[in-house]
Structure formats: structure tokens, C-alpha cells
Description:
Order of helices and strands: HEHHEEHHHH
Radius of gyration: 18 Å
Helix content: 55-70%
Number of strands: 3
Structural class: mainly alpha
Shape: globular
Number of helices: 7
Number of domains: 2
Amino acid sequence: MSISDIIEQFILDSIGDDEFISISRNQLADFFKCVPSQINYVLATRFTIDKGFIVESKRGGGGYIIISRLPDEDNIKYITSLVNNGFLQQLSQIQADQILDRLLASNLINARERKILSSAFSDKALLVPDSIKPSVRANILKNILVEILKNISQQS
């Protein structure tokens, strides 16, 4: 397990079910015995909007950061924007997995469904020419997202 994985898990555990946490970047770096840029890297790559988080930096006092979990309404907006904009024209396996991670973190799919979907999006499962795999993957995910939106609206 890498230091980035450990820092990410620590932050996720710290947030728990709360809406946000406020932590000192320098204290976190001291705790993990790493440079503050390592903390910046984790925040920039693992706590992004597409993964359901907003990170705000506060200057002074050792560089405090606030990490907020997006509320459920924002998850619906996120899915709707994915379905409606041109993003889902081409989709790599990595991008598909990032979206599935966000859906899992938002409790819109469970861990078993995430594994099944990731497997279905794999290059091994998509028996089409490599040149069209990204568009096939995007089309499949778009249809899945539409079904998730339908289920959300039926529950409301």
C-alpha cells in the first residue's frame, strides 16, 4: 500500500459520515512524515469533484484545508451532467472506474455491482475493435446512468 493510499484512507476515515472536515496540511504531512506536496497530490487526484468531493484551501495557520463531501442532490446533478454533456462520447477503463467509484461512494451502487460493472467495461469483455471500445464503453455507462436516475426519481 502506497503512502498516497494510506493518506487517502486516513482522510476518508476522518470524514466518515460527516459532510466535511477541516485539517491542517502541515500537521497531516508531519503525521505521515511526508512533504506537504504529497498531501497536495492526494487531494488533487483522489478528492476531486468527479469523485464526490470539494477541497478548499485556507491560507495561514499552517495551510488548513476543508474537504467537503458533495450532497446527494449534487450527485444527481453530476449524473445528469454526465448523461447530457458530451463527456460520455469516449471513455477509458480508468475513467469508467473513476465514475463507478463515485457511484459507489454515493451509495448509488454497491460494491458487488461496482465490480460487475467494472468487469463489463474491461477491454477483455468488450469484444470489438480497440478503436471503438471507448465509445462502446461510454454508451453502456450512459445507459446505466439513465437507469440509476430513473430509480432515484422513483424512490423520491
